[in-house]
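Moderator note: this is an archived Q&A kept for reference. The question asked for a predicted structure of one protein chain; the sequence and the answer are reproduced below.
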Amino acid sequence: MTYFNPLVLNEHIKQYKRRRTSVLLGLLFFLNFFVAVGMKFIYSNTDFTFWQYLHVSTYLIFMLNFLIVIIAGDIVSSEFSQGTVKMLLTRPVSRLKILHAKYITVVSSVFYVVTIHLLFALSFGLLFFFPTLMDIDDGLLMKIILKTLFGTLEMIIIATFTLMLSVVSRSSLFSVAFSIFFLMSIKILLAVMNHFQVVQFKYVLFANTNLSQYFYGEPMFYGMTMNFSILNILIHMIFFYVLSALVFTKRDV
């Protein structure tokens, strides 16, 4: 543990010194700003409230996945492409601890991104819809909380999947591009399979990552339950991480 915390700190410093961090923060700002302005314009003559705006902002969490994919897809492969991996591995620390540090940094980034998104959403909500702040709807508030929590969990799963691709492929371009393509196409594929009720697709990880389907809506495929989805997620997460650890600790550099 002597080296572990400095490793995590070092990974954070490397990530947030990059210019792309400012770009990603700018994207979060403008994404929330345009949604707030849009809601204010569209619902200017209605009883649209602060809490309804926050509920709309939870749908942006899916867009945040693309930001996390960029971080997770680059955090390992960039060390190989830039030739810094040899310097990294000369430290008196096991490769597994280095991978742990990178994974903790990726997961931390998920929470940072979600927190910053919520701060922007709250700020613009107060700016444009402050008079309706006290019009609290308990049911809507619970929906906001659950969708945020489940959206954050889904981001962690996608980040773990992308990190695995980054380790295995050693290519930032491949891991980021493939994850983004997969993220968009798998939703379409699952929607088609759901339409034809091809129930075998219930075993696909991304049919299970949205746990809000058990609270708001209905399961994507017949036979799916909350426990089934949680078990499915755990099995895949363990597989992704074990595969990443095996490849990272055994590969020659």
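Archived answer notes: The chain has a mean pLDDT of 89.
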